Amino acid sequence: MKRFVIFPTIALLAVIAGCGGGGGAKSVFDDRSCINSPDGDVLFGSMAWNPAEANVYAAEVQQVNKGKIGIFRGNALELEIDVLSGYSNSLKGLAWSRSGKYIAVNYHGGVRSGINIYNAKTGEWAQKVYADNAHFMVFGPTDATIYISWLGDDEQEVPTGL
Description:
Helices cover 5% and strands 36% of the residues. The chain is mainly beta. The protein has one domain (22-159): YVTN repeat-like/Quinoprotein amine dehydrogenase (Methylamine Dehydrogenase, Chain H, 7 Propeller). The strands form 3 sheets. The protein has a 5-stranded antiparallel sheet, with no helix packed on it. It has a 4-stranded antiparallel sheet with strand order 2-3-4-5, with no helix packed on it. Strands 10-11-12 form a 3-stranded antiparallel sheet, with no helix packed on it. The relative contact order is 0.17.
C-alpha cells in the first residue's frame, strides 16, 4: 500500500487560518473581509466577505489571472469588475471597506499596479493607493484608511483618499 504525505502550502494554511499573516497573535489581516497572498498569489476560489451585508462576497472569476473580480450575492453574480482590461496577471488581494461601499483590488504589476479601489455597487474605479509591494491589505475602521503589509506582520496605515 502506497502512502502519501501532503504538505500544505502557505496559501492553503492562510485559507485555513483566515487571511492574515499567521503566527500566534491575532493580526489586523485576520478578517473575513479580505483575502491576501502570503506566497504571492491568492488561491483561486477564495472569497472576501462584505462586512456590511451578509451573504455578499467578492472573488476572482474565470478566467483566472485575467483581472475579473465578481461581486456575488449568494451564488448569483451581480457585478463583474474588469480590473486589468485585457492584461494578464495574478491576484495579490481583495478587501471590502467596512461600509461595504468599496472593494480594494491588488494585482501584480501591469496596467493597474498598486491597490485600486472600486465602487462595489457600480464597478466604477474610485481611487488608487500606491502600494505596489503589499501582499496583505485590509480596510481600517472607516473607508478613509487601509492597512497594508509585505509580510503580514508589519502593517502600516495608508490613507485611501475616499
